[in-house]
């Protein structure tokens, strides 16, 4: 039985469409190069492991590993030591040795109501990544539950808020899917690491969440459409109280 362990590595300040369902859409500025959010990178914060002794040992090794960034990178004016990437082109290194370069920012602030739950997509960040060592590759393979991955890869980070507008405690089931250009679908069992799955919201409580997906390597300029859908919501007795949300269309 697998268990997702959210090990937060503080790098600076911590930071889908189906059938006949109605859709909500927005068009965003794809030339944004600045962000008011305080952190734009977390893609190796969440390590997915099995509950075996071997996995626990590997997790412990990750916890104590700290990559030494070469001087040639540290002297670059676009290098941000604390990972607080605000401008396109800036880059940092995670704890394991992956260079994370911010390639695109989209501030969205698009909301939909789904029954008694309100979802607000706050921002989308796109990253170009390069793992500089074996530890970095091992970490990302655990994050996305992969056996193999190239040392260069692209990720998409989604930041969103979820608000429980009801008078009862609810359990979230996370993002159902993120579809990219009708070409690739991310889901909980397909290259998507979603913090919101399994979260509990008290009556009238709101929480900020984030998710990170591994996307096929291609020029981000070709990104035209994202479709996001959330899973249904359950009460404390496991009864479905709200079905999956409408699809949110984000046009670039």
TrEMBL record:
This is DUF4352 domain-containing protein. Residues 23-60 are annotated as: Disordered. Residues 50-60 have a biased composition (Basic and acidic residues). It comes from the Bacteria. Residues 23-47 have a biased composition (Low complexity).
């Amino acid at each position: 039985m697998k268990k997702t362990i959210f090990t937060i590595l503080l790098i600076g300040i911590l930071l889908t469409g189906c059938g006949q369902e109605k859709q909500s859409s927005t068009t965003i500025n794809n030339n944004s190069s600045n962000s008011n959010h305080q952190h734009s990178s977390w893609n190796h914060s969440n390590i997915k492991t099995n509950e075996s002794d071997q996995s626990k040992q590997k997790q412990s090794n990750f916890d104590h590993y700290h990559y030494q960034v070469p001087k040639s990178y540290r002297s670059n004016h676009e290098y941000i030591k604390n990972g607080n990437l605000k401008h396109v082109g800036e880059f940092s290194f995670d704890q394991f040795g992956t260079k994370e370069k911010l390639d695109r920012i989209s501030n969205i602030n698009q909301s939909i109501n789904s029954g008694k739950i309100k979802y607000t997509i706050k921002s989308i960040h796109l990253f170009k990544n390069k793992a500089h060592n074996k530890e970095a590759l091992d970490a990302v393979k655990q994050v996305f539950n992969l056996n193999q991955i190239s040392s260069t890869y692209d990720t998409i980070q989604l930041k969103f808020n979820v608000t429980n507008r009801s008078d009862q405690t609810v359990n979230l089931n996370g993002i159902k899917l993120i579809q990219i250009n009708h070409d690739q679908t991310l889901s909980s069992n397909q290259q998507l690491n979603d913090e919101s799955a399994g979260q509990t919201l008290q009556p009238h409580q709101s929480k900020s969440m984030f998710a990170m997906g591994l996307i096929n390597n291609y020029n981000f300029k070709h990104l035209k459409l994202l479709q996001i859908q959330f899973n249904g919501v359950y009460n404390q007795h496991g009864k479905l109280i709200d079905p999956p949300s409408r699809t949110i269309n984000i046009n670039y």
